[in-house]
Design brief:
Layout (H helix, E strand, L loop, with lengths): L5 H14 L4 E4 L3 H13 L9 E2 L10 E4 L10 E5 L12 E5 L5 H16 L6 E4 L5 E4 L1
Parallel strand pairs: 1-3, 1-4, 2-3, 4-5
Antiparallel strand pairs: 6-7
Length: 141
Amino acid sequence: MTESTLEEALPPLVEKSLERGWRVGIQTASEERRDALDSRLWTFRDDSFVPHGTDREPHAAEQPVILTTTAANPNAATIRFLVDSAEPGALEGYQRAVFLFDGHDAGQLEAARAQWKVMKAAGHDVTYWQQGPDRRWQKKA
């Protein structure tokens, strides 16, 4: 992300995933970030919310979107969003894994490059998308 914050960019991506019929996992590196995103998904737009839960709730498996701090997949998600340099664990069973990072943060950028190398070495089909000035995602070569 170079043109928006995680709190701005993530909810529309999750909505698009739900529109495709996918179950969503969002993995954060801390409980504080998980809880902040939990609040944000309820309130990011006045006319909408993303139905979701967290891994600390009793019915996590039933949630279309789950926020977690671990590599577990309690809701059998089809797509996994990883934020704040969260370590993904095994990605078998997912149709997509999306690593979101702040392109202006040197630490996050370095971690993303390292994750790219690990994913590529593991044989995953990797692509890189960057926000343009209009905040739309553009695939990079």
